[in-house]
C-alpha cells in the first residue's frame, strides 16, 4: 500500500515540474521551458530543473508553443538581410536584449564628435554607418555601447 501511495504522489508531483512550453529559436533550436512573461524585448522562463528565472531576447525566438493545448504563438519574424541596400532592416538593440543571439567577430569603434555638428546628428550618422556595415555582411542586429564621451563601440549579433 505504501508503494502504491508513493507512486501516486510522485506521479501527481511530476505535473508541477514538467515544462509547459517549447521555445523555438530562429536557428532551429528548441527549448523545453516554463514560460513566465514577456517584457521589454525579453522573455522570462525557467527550465523546470531549477527555479532560477532566465531570459532570452524576443528577437532570437520564432515561436512559443504551449504543450498542453498545442497553441502556437508567433514571437518574432526572422530578419533576412541581403546586402547593403537592406540596411533599413538592421535593428539597433539594447545590450541587455542580446541574450540568445550570437555575437560576431565584427566589433566597431567610432568617434562620437565631429567638429561643427551636434551630438545627435553625429549619433544618427554613426548608427546609419553601422547599419550599412552590418547589412553589407548580412548581420541583422547591432548593439551600441558608449565607452566614454568621445568614443563608442558596437557589437553585431546574428541568430
Describe this structure in words.
The protein is an alpha+beta fold and 159 residues long. It is 21% helix and 35% strand. The chain is built from two helices and eleven strands; from the N terminus they run H-E-E-E-E-E-E-E-E-E-H-E-E. The strands form two sheets. It has a six-stranded antiparallel β-sheet, with no helix packed on it. Strands 7, 8, 9, 10 and 11 form a five-stranded mixed β-sheet that branches. Strand 3 (42-46) and strand 4 form a beta hairpin. The relative contact order is 0.15. The model is unreliable at 4-17 (pLDDT under 50).
Concise synopsis of the structure shown:
With 159 residues, the chain is an alpha+beta fold. It has helices at residues 2-17, 119-136; strands spanning 21-25, 30-39, 42-46, 54-57, 61-66, 72-74, 91-93, 102-103, 108-111, 141-146, 151-158.
Task: Please outline the helices and strands.
Elements: H1 2-17, E1 21-25, E2 30-39, E3 42-46, E4 54-57, E5 61-66, E6 72-74, E7 91-93, E8 102-103, E9 108-111, H2 119-136, E10 141-146, E11 151-158
Parallel strand pairs: 7-10
Antiparallel strand pairs: 1-2, 1-5, 2-3, 3-4, 5-6, 8-11, 9-11, 10-11
Amino acid at each position: 500500500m505504501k508503494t502504491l501511495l508513493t507512486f501516486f504522489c510522485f506521479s501527481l508531483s511530476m505535473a508541477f515540474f514538467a515544462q509547459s512550453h517549447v521555445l523555438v529559436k530562429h536557428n532551429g533550436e528548441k527549448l523545453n521551458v516554463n514560460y513566465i512573461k514577456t517584457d521589454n524585448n525579453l522573455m522570462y522562463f525557467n527550465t523546470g530543473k531549477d527555479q532560477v528565472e532566465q531570459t532570452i531576447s524576443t528577437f532570437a525566438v520564432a515561436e512559443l508553443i504551449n504543450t498542453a493545448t498545442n497553441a502556437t504563438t508567433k514571437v518574432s519574424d526572422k530578419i533576412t538581410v541581403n546586402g547593403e541596400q537592406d540596411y533599413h532592416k538592421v535593428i539597433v538593440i539594447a545590450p541587455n536584449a542580446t541574450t540568445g543571439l550570437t555575437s560576431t567577430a565584427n566589433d566597431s569603434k567610432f568617434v562620437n564628435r565631429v567638429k561643427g555638428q551636434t551630438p545627435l546628428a553625429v549619433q544618427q550618422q554613426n548608427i546609419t554607418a553601422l547599419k550599412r556595415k552590418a547589412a553589407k555582411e548580412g548581420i541583422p542586429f547591432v548593439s551600441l555601447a558608449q565607452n566614454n564621451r568621445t568614443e563608442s563601440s558596437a557589437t553585431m549579433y546574428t541568430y
